[in-house]
Amino acid sequence: MIKHIYLFIFAALSFQSFAQYPPAVGQIGSTAIYKDSSIFIDWAITCDIKRGYVDISDTTIEDPAYPGTNKASYGDNTAAFGKADNNTISLGDGGSAVLTFSHPISNGQGFDFAVFENSFDDIFLELAYVEVSSDGIHFVRFPSVSLTQTTTQIQGFGTLDATQIHNLAGKYKVYYGTPFDLSELQDSTGIDINHIIAVKIIDVVGSISELYKNYDSQGHIINDPFPTPFGTGGFDLDAVGVINNSTNTGVTSIFNAAETIKIFPNPVADFLNIAINNRNSYNIQLINASGKIVKQINSDKNSNISVMDVLSGIYLVKVSDNNGNVFTQKIIINKL
């Protein structure tokens, strides 16, 4: 009997030591999803950022590009709007981002959304926790696993093996999303997996130091490149793509055809034109980088919005109707 117990313990430990999770992009069994996949039906439209330190172990270190600040500085929150395009915002050590969408994400068949980072190859990986919320206040974290060794610190430009990482964003290289399945949270309290209105991305501080270490859901220390004392340090958020949401009901959207709505010119300096090839009533919103509605009108076909009193920058145009159909497009207001 004792012999059988020892054999069971040995087998369990051996499995944990050699557990293999899906591999890098292009390898058999990889779960990476390319940015242009037709599986994506929506992308984030707002992003609220809380920057982390350039180097959490020495907060006197300043961003080399912006002397006077000890927080990561690269990019702005508009970089996380829309489709993955390698235009990113750096979170810094322990920084976070909360993203919202046109419609709540819901639990469907297979994966429900994917997070994109900008790693330049399959082995230089910067990781982040992923959490979701049904009310924008209470968040539930996906159970994650990191089986990377913890005896030696992965240095700032060190490497990781994707097969040792599970449910941590940043597992795949630029243009390839790390997918998440809401069904994994079906037994969690305080969450409705069919009504996710916000996704939070939290940079993993990859230090194995007792002072700064982060853990996976099984109690393992997460070892990833550290320190990265630059303005581009920490997780570099590119985008969050939605695979299943509350509009996946079999109803055909009037916005499926690209020619239905045209928004031009882009960039725009004075008047933005919205041409809608449909006689239904529409609501048109111009949303700034902070998610604030700066212009709003109702229309029944073709409209124009004056932007002469709006500051230059990147905005989102959101067109919606009474049936829950939504069309969004990123525009640039440039008065120079």
Account of the 3D structure:
The protein is mainly beta. It folds into two domains: 21-242, no CATH class; 258-333, Immunoglobulin-like (Sandwich). It has one helix at residues 2-18, and strands at 33-34, 42-43, 46-50, 89-90, 96-105, 113-116, 128-133, 139-141, 145-146, 165-166, 176-180, 196-203, 236-237, 239-242, 261-264, 271-276, 282-287, 293-299, 303-306, 313-320, 326-333. The chain has a five-stranded antiparallel beta sheet with strand order 1-11-6-14-2, with no helix packed on it. The protein has a five-stranded antiparallel beta sheet with strand order 3-5-12-7-8, with no helix packed on it. β20 and β21 (326-333) form a beta hairpin. The longest helix is centred in the N-terminal third of the chain and has 17 residues, at 2-18. The protein starts with a helix and ends with a strand. 43% of the residues are buried.
Tag the structure with descriptive keywords.
1 helix, single chain, mainly beta, 2 domains, 336 residues, 5% helix, five-stranded antiparallel β-sheet, disordered N terminus, globular, Immunoglobulin-like
Structural domain tally: 2
Distance between the first and last residues' Cα: 81 Å
Strand order of the largest sheet: 1-11-6-14-2
Global morphology: globular
Return the structural class: mainly beta
Radius of gyration: 22 Å
- Average pLDDT confidence is 87
What is the beta-strand fraction? Answer: 25-35%
Secondary structure tally, helices: 1
Secondary-structure element string: HEEEEEEEEEEEEEEEEEEEEE
Ranges with pLDDT <50 over ≥5 residues?
1-17, 249-254
* Number of distinct beta strands: 21
| Share in helix | under 10%
